[in-house]
Amino acid sequence: MPTTPLSAQSPCLLLVDDDAAVGDALKFSMELEGFQVRTYADAAALLDAGPTPDVGCLVIDLNLPDVDGLELLRRLRARKVTLPAVLITTNPTAIIRARARAQGAPIVEKPLLTDALLETIRGLMRPAEASGPLPA
Fold first, then answer.
1. Cα separation of the two ends of the chain
2. CB burial of residue 10 (10 Å; 0-12, 13-18, 19+)
3. Is the dihedral of CA 30, 110, 73, 43 positive or negative?
4. Cβ–Cβ under 8 Å, residues 81 and 56
5. Which of 48, 52, 89, 115 could cross-link with 62 by S-S, CB 3.0 to 4.6 Å?
6. Is 67 exposed, middle or buried (0-12, 13-18, 19+ CB in 10 A)?
């Protein structure tokens, strides 16, 4: 499948993961798919980064060093950040699944060996698409 080159109108993924290797790998693969990617090592880094883009998606690891990914998402929603969000984690419990569902955040389980994350992101962003096609 061909990739779409980055442009000023490419959707932006805000990736929060404290594992630098995971962050680098996801950044590389999502940029190949045509997304702009901003990476953050923890919740504080994203919360301190300033305004979020109008078009994009949050990809948040559950197990962050400062607060968990669901608490970060709650704080972002309190700040009126409405970007769709995906939670990534390994072996989520029923309680975590219920909390994520209550916040409208699907879970994609690690290890990220398939296109599940990419397809979930595309599915979440498609309804909000306003300025052209998403990267294919």
1. 7
2. buried
3. negative
4. no
5. 89
6. middle
CA distance 43 to 78: 14
Q: Whole-angstrom Cα distance, residue 73 to residue 132?
A: 27
Per the structure block, which two tokens stand in for 6?
A: 């980055």
Express each pLDDT in 30-83 by its tens digit.
Answer: 999 999 999 999 999 999 998 999 889 999 999 999 899 999 999 999 999 999
Residue 124 φ then ψ, to 5°: -70, -35
What is the pTM assigned to this prediction? 0.85
CB 37 within 8 A of CB 26: yes
Give CATH superfamily name and number for 12-126: Response regulator (3.40.50.2300)
